[in-house]
Amino acid sequence: MRKTLMILFCMVGFAGQAIAHARLESAVPPVGATVSTPPKQIAITFSESVEPAFSSIEVTDAAGNRDDTGKPQVAADDRQVLIVALQPLGPGAYKVVWHAVSVDTHKTQGSYSFTVAP
Amino acid sequence: MPPFDIEGGLGFAFVRGISVAACLSVLGALVFRLVVAPPVLAGMKPSAAAEQDRRWLRLLWGSVAAALLGAGGWLGLESGAMAGATGIADRLAAVPLVVLNSRFGMVLVIRLGLLAAVPLAIGRSLRPPRLAIAAALAAAAAASQASLGHAASIGHGFEWLALSTTLHILAAAIWLGQLPPLWIFLADAPPAAAGLALRRFSRLGLTCVILLAATASAQGWGLVGGVAGFVGTAYGWTALAKLLLFGILLAIAAINRFTFMPRLASGVAATARRALCRSVLVEAILGLLVILAAGILTSLPPGMDAAQGLRWPYR
Ligand code: HEM
Questions:
Q1: Which of B5, B148, B150, B153 has the most A C-beta neighbours within 10 Å, making it the best mutation to test the interface with A?
Q2: Cα gap A4→A50, rounded to integer Å
Q3: Which of B15, B165, B176 to mutate to test the pocket of ligand 1 (most atoms within 8 A of CB)?
Q4: Which of A18, B77, B221, B250 lies deepest, with the highest CB count within 10 Å?
Q5: Residue A7: closest CA among chain B residues belongs to which residue?
Q6: Beta bridge partners of A41
Q7: Cα–Cα distance between B303 and B4 in angstroms, integer?
Q8: Are B303 and B225 in contact (CB under 8 A)?
Q9: Which of B6, B140, B29 is nearest to B81 (CA)?
Q10: Tell me, what CATH number does A90's domain have?
């Protein structure tokens, strides 16, 4: 039995990717995207509903200045979507760092970038 | 072995498991006294029946106290973790924040209220309507656990998986939660009464076992993530451990029902009662282990998510 399991394991193999509870499923603007109009907000859709009071989305520009307005909220019709409003953005690269606490109390975090085209 | 990335560590999962087990024990004790025990007690000498009730009440109060402490302790620990608090003062300050701003906090406060209402509902008498109200309060407290698992965090509105988890937890309570009162009852019951109690318990237990098997399959299907999830993730391994324990519990239940129970009506009744008593105790301890394993399961990323990083041909 042990041997069979070991063999199964070798067959399975790990790809080494980080594993999460509330995973980022999609984002607007999309992960890694270049957009022509500056976004007014960041909206991240997670694989689980999240608690906005204990979650955060921080947006910084290349110089390290914060460009979000602070407290994120969930979308009125969907607790899986976390939204933070932005200050007016100029052209350039931006980094988004998110921390999420899902309604089942699990914590996850991640980051990605997007660019506003000149 | 896949990495056991337990949220908050094993201690957290343990506190969660213990607090759930105590809550299930409250419901199980009430169901035992309300459904299984009445005809058995009616057939006993009044003094013996009264003594049984005294011992049962001690078990109930002990379970209520443990469930209150467990829920309070879990709320305190988890609040600190959710708010990222470190010192004692910060952790304490996090509790009202979590209660007012999260589903977890709200559910735990409601649960504490429901559990605290159980003694009030029972008052000084064990009349069936009062026991029924207390059982309904305990059932709501136990069922609320389903809103804190993975099934309730995915999806948007009504979810069949969340319904399945609710039934799963209630079936676990009505089957395994009745083992401690059954054990206490068997320790000092005349063989005929012991036989009747076991027969009545078994009938209810069988329904719960069927429900547990069905809901476990649904959750296994919906959350574990197929073969890759079962063999390649900590979540799958924990589910398999639960399956193994479930199998052992079924074997013990079958031995109790088909070997010891008939012997209660034979010439070796006293020995059979003692053996049965030991067997029920072992079953209760293994039952606690399954509930602790369930606490670990809920603290792990679901296999279907974790398995996404695995190279495996079957999904
Ligand atoms: C005697 C048998 C069993 C008992 C007493 C039991 C008990 C429980 C309890 C109390 C929970 C809720 C845990 C919590 O929220 O803290 C739970 C959840 C669950 N159980 Fe079981 N269980 C049993 C058998 C099984 C089996 C055989 C499987 C599948 C192989 C299974 C799969 C699950 C799953 C997938 C969840 C949801 C966990 C999550 O939220 O991620 N259970 N069980």
A1: B153
A2: 39
A3: B165
A4: B77
A5: B231
A6: A85
A7: 12
A8: yes
A9: B6
A10: 2.60.40.1220
Could B102 and A48 be called an inter-chain contact, meaning their C-beta atoms sit closer than 8 Å?
no
* The amino acid at B288: L
Is there a contact between A34 and A118 (Cβ–Cβ < 8 Å)?
no
Atom of ligand 1 nearest to the CA of B300: 41
Structural domain span for residue A29? 22-116
The answer to whether residue A11 is domain-embedded is: no
A77 occurs within a structural domain: yes
Q: Does A10 reside within a domain? A: no
Written as six digits, the tokens of B28 are 């199980």
- pLDDT digits over B152-177, tens only? 887 655 578 889 999 999 999 999 99
Order the strands of the A92-101 sheet from edge to edge.
A34-35, A107-116, A92-101, A56-61
Q: Do the bridges between strand A34-35 and strand A107-116 make them parallel or antiparallel, or are there none, so unpaired?
A: parallel
pLDDT at B124 over 90: no
Give B101's contacts (C-beta < 8 A, 6+ positions apart): A51, A53, A54
pLDDT tens track for B276-309? 999 999 999 999 999 999 999 999 988 887 766 5
- State pTM to two decimals: 0.89
The total number of structural domains that make up chain A? 1
- Distance, in Å, from the CA atom of B115 to the CA atom of B78, rounded to the nearest integer, reads 19
Decide: B216 in ligand 1 pocket, CB within 6 A.
Answer: yes
In a domain, A66, yes or no: yes
Taking the centre of ligand 1 as the mean of its atom positions, its distance from the CA of residue B147, in whole angstroms, is 13
